[in-house]
Design goal:
Blueprint (H helix, E strand, L loop, with lengths): L13 H12 L1 H35 L10 E5 L5 E5 L6 E9 L3 E5 L4 E3 L2 E2 L13 E7 L2 E7 L5 H9 L12 E6 L4 E9 L4 E8 L2 H7 L1 E2 L10 E4 L3 E5 L2 E5 L3 E4 L2 E5 L8 E7 L1 H26 L12 H5 L3 H12 L7 H15 L18 E3 L8 E3 L1 H10 L1 H9 L18 H20 L12 H51 L3
Parallel strand pairs: 5-12
Antiparallel strand pairs: 1-18, 2-17, 3-14, 3-18, 4-10, 5-6, 7-8, 7-11, 9-10, 11-13, 14-15, 16-17, 19-20
Helix pairs in contact: 1-12, 2-5, 2-11, 2-12, 5-9, 8-11, 9-10
Length: 514
Amino acid sequence: MVMRITGFSSGLDIDQIVKDLMKAERAPQDKIYQKQQWAEYQRDAYRDINLAMDKFKKSVENLRFQSTFNAYSATSSDSTSFSVKSTSNSIPGNYSVVVDKIAKIANLTSSDAIKSNGSNVKSSDLILSPGETATIKVQSANGEKEITIDDTFTYSRLAKEISNATDETTGKSLGLRAMFDDATSRFVIASKDLGAKQQISLSDISGNIAGLIKDGGDRTSANSLTNPFTATGEDASVTVNGATVTSSSNNISVYGMNITLLKEDPGVTKTISVKSDSDNVFNSIKSFVEEYNKLIDTVNSKLNEKRYRDYQPLTKEQREALSENEAKLWDEKAKSGVLSRDSLLTETMSQLRTYLSIPVDGIPSNELNSLSKIGITTEYMSLDGKLQINEDKLREAINNNPEQIMNLFTKSGSKDTSTSTASLKDSGIGDRLYEMLKSTITKLNDKAGAPNTAANIDKSVLGKSISEYSTQYNDWIDKLATIESRYYKQFNAMEEAIQKLNNQMSYITSALGG
């Protein structure tokens, strides 16, 4: 460490001189700091746009699904017996419903508790005595499997083997669930799927384990089961307006309605009421337009923001010299215009306007193939590109052509978003916008990192620049410390020389009798 002399000999303010000299030396570091600050301003601004894009994407997401454009509502007169949902193909009216049967799984349950020496066994108990073995055959609609049981098998392990059983030829799962219930000391074996096609069969090849599973009781006295222990599932059956429909599932589609059967009630007639419900569709489309216009405001405010080039980011020393309010006002000017006329955002908004305006390929021109045909347009000579809604025209389209409205937004098309407008011309409005926004958000992430990304893992273009500026800035800290030390050494040497000269002058003056 260099001892600092404060100018006692020279009478100079050495600290102030060095401080002034270091201002000039620090100029390159200050430039780096300002570049880093500017990159951080850009990063933060891009991330704000990213959040706005993501919010709009979420409002667009539902526009890709047909269920969003269901212009009808359906209600069940007995929600404990069945539930119902309408579709775009539903026809308003009342429907009579009789739930004759619900679909059931195939199920085998021990008829009595399994015991050992008169006491109920537990899942962790061993099934066989030392040295014993037994083999059972398990069959289902998917195949069959022979399971060999040795003296290490517990009741829970056997249940697991049945659950994991696969057909010996095809390797396909038998599709079963099995458990041993400690509370009742019984096996329960069931098919995973519903319906009359589901079957379970259990028999003994050797030993009496299948018989034990069937009848329960004491294992030592159980009978070998040669006639299989079997169970079969059941199909659902529902009668709607006099027509009976059967299914292996409790979810049945009929007359444009999706009915879920919950409880059978044969002979008892219930009703379904289907009514027009265009408000839900109208509100979904209106919300999308409102969110789009908010996005327009957010992005345009950044693109059109004035840039004040005379207001560079404050250095640390400059900030210390200002009051808090002065620094705040300066920062507002310095951050202004950070994304002014940004090419990525300009291109994005141009694509959005294009995707919203061009008709959907594949939909006939005499149908609703564009937003303008349902009353959603851009005001004539509009500079901001906002959408406006003719609400009467939109409601009329929803009420008269619900399927065409749905097709306009949900039509499937090309998923190639590599960039050409043509690549999404055959997609519905919902898919177009969703895919384009996904692509844009990816570009924003590449440019500035996803919102809330920590600096140490930010590999975006701006993230790397900020990291490089930070490294350069820190390198200058050591460099400036060396320069400052050199200045003090030089002034120390000057002070020492002046001090020696003063001493010599005093000696000469004294020697001459002065």
